[in-house]
Design goal:
Blueprint: H1 2-24, H2 28-39, H3 48-70, H4 76-104, H5 128-135, H6 150-159, H7 165-172, H8 179-191, H9 194-201, H10 214-217, E1 221-222, E2 226-227, H11 228-243
Antiparallel strand pairs: 1-2
Helix pairs in contact: 3-4, 3-11, 4-5, 4-8, 4-11, 6-7, 7-11, 8-9
């Protein structure tokens, strides 16, 4: 045991010395890249694959929770809980798209093939949040884009000139965009306004004589025997994987 501890300490000291030597010859950004290349790994927060895996785990957790709710007779409380899960699913997707695109522009992100994406924003903007500040310097960008909208997300990626723009555009720009239905249903649950209700009723799959509820929006099965809520979850996973 003592011999193993000594070996571990020696290995850590050697790694620290190598990092110090490398850092002398590189700028901050270059040092990070050199470290990636030398040790074959990078900070998990900079890996787009890790970002995608985080999204998938979140989706799985929400899908499991929703499955338990919908498998039992619904009460006022459980309906409200199901609506909150819809809010969380929409928020998880919007946050994923935002972080994926911003991170892709920093020069430190690693794609699904373990390739470091080149920096496409000015060097003074060094982080993901700084990339967002840079995006807000463009004309007509007083606020962040509506990341859940494909056109807005693709436009932001184009302005940031991310090198994986083609993958993002192909994945997010696919039609029909099933996640629009999620956004429309979420808006009704959140606001319950007349305009939100009309938007739900205009959906091609919503029966004209039905009340708008959890039962008529989340529970119905689509061709193939999958619940509509589960279709949104599957769509998010397939689109996020295609972005890699």
């Amino acid at each position: 045991k003592n011999q193993s501890n000594r070996f571990l300490i020696q290995a850590l000291r050697s790694l620290f010395c190598i990092c110090c030597c490398v850092k002398k010859y590189y700028s901050k950004d270059e040092f990070a890249k050199a470290t990636f290349y030398r040790f074959g790994k990078c900070s998990l927060s900079l890996m787009l694959l890790h970002l995608t895996c985080q999204l998938e785990r979140r989706i799985d957790a929400l899908e499991s929770e929703m499955g338990i709710i919908l498998s039992q007779p619904l009460t006022i409380s459980s309906r409200r809980q199901a609506e909150h899960i819809v809010f969380q699913l929409q928020n998880a997707w919007e946050l994923y798209i935002r972080n994926f695109i911003l991170l892709s522009s920093t020069g430190l992100a690693v794609d699904g093939s373990a390739v470091i994406l080149p920096r496409t924003i000015p060097p003074e903007y060094k982080s993901r949040e700084a990339a967002c500040h840079y995006l807000l310097t463009f004309p007509n960008y007083h606020y962040e884009p509506k990341w859940y909208k494909p056109l807005d997300a693709i436009r932001a990626a184009r302005l940031l000139r991310v090198s994986n723009l083609s993958k993002i555009s192909a994945a997010v720009g696919s039609t029909p965009w099933l996640l629009d239905d999620l956004r429309i249903v979420r808006n009704f649950f959140a606001h319950r306004s007349r305009s939100a209700a009309l938007s739900v009723r205009r959906l091609p799959w919503f029966a004209s004589g039905d009340m708008i509820s959890v039962e008529t929006t989340l529970m119905p099965y689509v061709p193939g025997g999958v619940r509509r809520f589960d279709v949104w979850c599957i769509t998010m996973k397939s689109v996020s994987r295609a972005m890699l």
